[in-house]
Structures are given as C-alpha cells and as structure tokens.
Design goal:
7 helices, Arc Repressor Mutant, subunit A, 2 domains, single chain, three-stranded antiparallel β-sheet, mainly alpha, 164 residues
C-alpha cells in the first residue's frame, strides 16, 4: 500500500538521486497527520466556541484537579506560551464566564485562575468530544501498535527537546 508521501519520496529520488530524502517518509507523514488532527480538533471543538488556545487553558485547569485553580504563571509555563498570550486568553475566558480570577488564600495580593462551574461543565464536555476524535483517529492501530508508536514518538520528542 502506498500513499502520497511515497510518491513524493520517489520523485525526489528520481529528481535528485544524491539527496537522501528518506526522512520525508516519516516527517511528511507526521506533518500530514498533524494537519488532519488539527482540522478534526477544530471541528470537534467548534460547537464549544473556543478560540485558539482557550481549550488548552481550561483543560490545564481541569487536569490540575480540584479546586481547578492555578496561578497565571503556572498556566503559561505549563502551556509554553508567553505571559502576554496567557493574559489575552484569560481575559477572553473571563468575559465568557469560563474562569474567574480569585485572590490566593495564602497571599491576598496574588491572583489565581479558577474554573467556574460553567467552565468546568464546558471543558468536561469538550474533553469527551476531543478524546473521542483522537481515539477514533487511532483506532486503526491495535493497542500494541499504539504503544509502540508512543515509545517511538517519546524518543523523537525527547531527542528534539534536548537539542533546543
């Protein structure tokens, strides 16, 4: 069974035989898969009205566990974004009632970000839909294949992160 990436790699082999384009067989597929997953994620999350990155903020608060509350610094560090980008996301989420900024119990000068009851309900529904899309996408692989893929991707990710 061949796909478009096989076609591209063959074309490069013919057009520039001295070029080792074998990495395209992996990276090309990874890029195409990410495009498909990004589109599927956007479609799945559209009914919830999330803007870019808002799902990630709410999901990070939810996975932090009860009382679903973190500092803005913890959030932007967890999401690997700038404080400015985080402020923009938090402002929008506060406007729509998904989060509230609350004073920290140990230091009233510090603010924390907490999920509101409606934000909690919304993110839990969105997470169900989001994971359903991912599980459906991966269903073509059996559990052993999925675990192999997890291990291989972990190796690649750790290597790439250690180079930066």
């Amino acid at each position: 069974m061949t796909d478009h990436i096989d076609f591209v790699v063959r074309q490069w082999a013919e057009a520039m035989p001295e070029l080792d384009a074998s990495s395209m067989a992996i990276t090309g597929r990874m890029l195409r898969i990410m495009k498909q997953l990004t589109a599927a994620r956007a479609e799945a999350l559209a009914p919830f009205g999330f803007r870019e990155g808002e799902f990630d903020v709410l999901a990070t608060l939810r996975r932090a566990g009860a009382p679903y509350c973190l500092s803005p610094t913890q959030l932007y560090q967890a999401l690997l974004i700038t404080s400015g980008a985080m402020t923009h996301r938090l402002n929008r989420l506060e406007e729509v009632g998904s989060i509230a900024r609350v004073a920290a119990a140990e230091d009233k000068r510090s603010m924390l970000v907490a999920l509101t009851p409606s934000g909690l309900e919304k993110i839990e529904q969105a997470l169900q839909r989001h994971t359903q899309v991912q599980n459906t996408f991966l269903a073509v692989l059996n559990k052993q294949q999925q675990q192999q893929l997890v291990e291989l991707l972990r190796i690649l990710l750790q290597a790439s992160e250690s180079q930066t």
